[in-house]
Amino acid sequence: MSLEIQKIAVIGGTGTLGSGLARRWARAGLSILVGSRDAAKANDFARSLPQQADGRPAEGASNGDATERADIIVLTVPFASQAEILEAIKPQLKGKILLDATVPLVPPKVARVQLPPEGSAALRAQNIAGEGVRVISGFHNVAADKLHKDAPIACDVLIFGDDVAAREIGIGLARKAGLRGLHGGPLANSAAAEALTSVLISINKRYGVDGAGLFITGIEQDRA
Amino acid sequence: MSLEIQKIAVIGGTGTLGSGLARRWARAGLSILVGSRDAAKANDFARSLPQQADGRPAEGASNGDATERADIIVLTVPFASQAEILEAIKPQLKGKILLDATVPLVPPKVARVQLPPEGSAALRAQNIAGEGVRVISGFHNVAADKLHKDAPIACDVLIFGDDVAAREIGIGLARKAGLRGLHGGPLANSAAAEALTSVLISINKRYGVDGAGLFITGIEQDRA
Questions:
Q1: Which of A50, A125, B64, B182 has the fewest beta carbons under 10 Å from its own?
Q2: B154 to chain A: which residues are within 8 Å by CB?
Q3: pLDDT at A7 (0 to 100)
Q4: Is B155 in contact with A217 (CB distance < 8 Å)?
Q5: How far, in Å, CA of B211 to CA of B144, rounded?
Q6: C-alpha dihedral over A42, A43, A46, A48, to 10 degrees?
Q7: Could you tell me whether strands A72-75 and B181-185 are parallel, antiparallel, or unpaired per DSSP bridges?
Q8: What residues of chain B lie within 8 A of the CB of A198, using their CB?
Q9: CB B16 within 8 A of CB B145
Q10: Chain B residues contacting A, CB < 8 Å?
């Protein structure tokens, strides 16, 4: 099923990452549901999005309603909220695809890798969501504020997941956001990209730059 | 102290990674001691290295002897041998710098991230070596066979360690090998680069390429 005819819920969709993705995806013609704890806030933001391909405006809803009405659910919330929000939308997630973008940053030392006991935030998401949900992960390394600007973003998006067809959807979503998505392997491999975000934050501090990213080298453009 | 006047032991120096680094470093004028379980084998390989800046040939020795006689010890052995070899050279390591290049690959699933209970191979190395040893890590993501060729290598080297001065030495060693070395933060962050190697192996398989690597973007050349 092509991305164009699926409904995509962005949970935490009023945050910097979620709103940046929602804006790019809406502009690319995808059908977006903005989810938030506060449905009114979600609606306000949704009204600011570009009109969709079907001529109707993007919509906002509570996290649970957005999940219920979507085919693909993208989770863009802080690590500290991940488990609670997943538990809350778990009944509506069943049988769907969950793209988890959670990065396990533990303040105040966000420049230090601190992976959770499960091995990664993505594996935690799969544990909570249960077997009926196809979990993929991605968008860990893109500086969220860059999604709000029009300049090209020098960063690849590694997509992880045990289901290859679901991973392909994640790669399509990266492309729709103007980024190159790449298969990064099984969900267990998400630890690499999640950990790398702390390394990139460390590099930003050390070298006084804003938004270091990564390119995977050695893949000819036509293979990816 | 500049790299030129220090003695560098490459433990596991007859393997693909170790011999590639030894060759590049010797060619750059550094003083190399090739360490191996088999001193004769180490000597044979050392004799094939370019003559050093001081006009004397590189030397081979047992792992323990090489460690004893060096200032900087570079560990390039398979994950399965890391702990045993570190225990063996531990008495000679004291007060020195250990650059651990171990990647925690667990056959047969080397394309799946399987970090050790300590969090990373580098943290395991620090645990074994003890507090008197300044442990840094790096060179996890460079395809070892590319070190043996003259073509430019499209891969950055992330260097991790809790001691910034020791990290600078690792960055210098990357540069001497013809690569860009970057501060990746504390030793705990080594998990990111170690895990990324399995992702790169997964990418090699998925896209049918040989030796995918990574570039960190967003750092102007003159800052790194």
A1: A50
A2: 217-218
A3: 95
A4: yes
A5: 9
A6: -110
A7: unpaired
A8: 185, 189, 192
A9: yes
A10: 111-115, 119, 154-155, 158, 182-186, 188-189, 191-193, 195-196, 198-200, 202-204, 206-220, 223-224
What residue ranges define each of the domains in chain B, with the CATH number in brackets?
Answer: 3-223 (3.40.50.720)
Kindly tell me the burial class for residue A106, based on how many C-beta atoms sit within 10 Å of its own C-beta (0-12, 13-18, 19 or more).
middle
Q: How many CB atoms lie within 10 A of CB B51?
A: 12
Cα separation, A21 vs A172, whole angstroms: 13
Q: Per residue in B164-186, pLDDT tens?
A: 999 999 999 999 999 999 999 99
User: What is the Cα–Cα distance from A161 to A167, expressed in whole angstroms?
Assistant: 6
> Is the pLDDT at A51 greater than 80, yes or no?
no
Residue B134: both structure tokens together: 């300044």
Task: Specify whether the CB–CB gap between A119 and A137 falls below 8 A.
Answer: no
Distance separating alpha carbons of residues B22 and B43, to the nearest angstrom = 13
Distance CA A79, CA B34 (A): 46
Tokens of A103: 């990065």
Residue matched to tokens 């020795």? B61
Residue-wise pLDDT tens digits, B62-111: 999 999 999 999 999 999 999 999 999 999 999 999 999 999 999 999 99
Which residues 6+ apart lie within 8 Å of B206 measured at CB? A183, A185
Considering only CB atoms, which chain A residues are within 8 Å of B198? 185, 189, 192
Q: What would you report as the CA-atom Rg of chain B, rounded to the nearest whole angstrom?
A: 16
Pairwise CB contact (< 8 Å): A217 & B220: no
Please answer whether residues A5 and A78 qualify as being in contact, where contact means their C-beta atoms are separated by less than 8 angstroms: no
Q: The whole model's pTM is what?
A: 0.96
Q: Do B192 and A195 touch (CB under 8 A)?
A: yes
Chain B contacts of A186, Cβ < 8 Å?
112, 202
Of the candidates B16, B81, B70, B13, the one whose C-alpha atom is nearest the C-alpha of residue B42 is B13
Residue B117, burial from CB neighbour count under 10 angstroms (0-12, 13-18, 19+)? exposed
Instruction: Classify strands B213-217 and A213-217 as parallel, antiparallel or unpaired.
Output: antiparallel
